[in-house]
Prior knowledge:
There is one protein chain. The strands form 2 sheets. Strands 1, 2, 3, 4, 5, 6, 7, 10, 11 and 12 form a 10-stranded mixed sheet that branches. The relative contact order is 0.13. This protein folds into 2 domains: 10-222, Alpha-Beta Complex (Spore Coat Polysaccharide Biosynthesis Protein SpsA, Chain A); 233-296. It is an alpha/beta fold. The termini are far apart. It is 38% helix and 21% strand.
Amino acid sequence: MKVAMANPHIFTVILNTNRRDDTLACLEALHQGDYQPHTIMVLDNGSHDGSVEAIAAAYPQVQIIQLKENRGYAGNNNVGIAAAIEQGADWVYVLNEDTTQAPDCLSQMIAVAEADPQIGIIGPMVYHADEPTAIQSAGGWLDAHWQAGHLGQNEPDVGQFPQPHLVDWISGCAILVRRAVIEQLGMLDDHFFYYWEETEWCVRAGQAGWRIVHVPQAKLWHKGVQINYQPGPNIAYYNTRNYLLLLHKHRAPFIVRGRAWYRIIRTYMSMSLKPERKTNGEARRAMVQGMRDFWRGRVGKRAD
Length: 304
């Protein structure tokens, strides 16, 4: 008699910092999900908005880990990833608190992932929460010059991504990672602190021979980025420093690094000279700080 195989155990890790209402909405969507076994962890980063109490009251089955220090998006999530692995997770789902997802989101991803043992990282179709049929990410690309972007970004979803497909990286707002990948390659690199950390994780996995797949049938909505999104100075800093750090860590060819520096400096000059962009002085200073800190080998949290 054929014995049915149990579903793999997914552990979802959610980082919350004073985002009580968003986190509660995220948890509600997860609890409407059809996938089991599924364990949820919330990592609370020193919130003072009543998050811990509200989550414990509404979802007593959710594990709450109160972080002792702020180690950034990468380092904080690593606390949850390590706890999930210790508790026997087959897959770890790193999920932003400002997301909601369809009830079958996890089921759709696991159905694809478990059919191919070489799939190490998988992700859903990410839509803009404020324009729910507009694509935020159908997976990420990384070209021969190590420039990165999102497939389908800001396009209306008209079925242009009908099937699961290979990608270079998965958006960090919702990234599902196989246990074996974490055991082989480690967790997120907390040197990045915030930004580019999920891309680097996927680059590591791809170089080790794992397949990275986007599943358009798995649907999720993300509030944190809008179509007209304008990143602030902190993003300018981490985007600059961590992109250079990615190239350095993975020994990108010299010509790739040279072109990266050229693009960064060209962007800085454009922001300095064009009248419509000259007002963004804080972002320009952040870029300079990012370049300087990369040269100095400063990693982790941006210095004040």
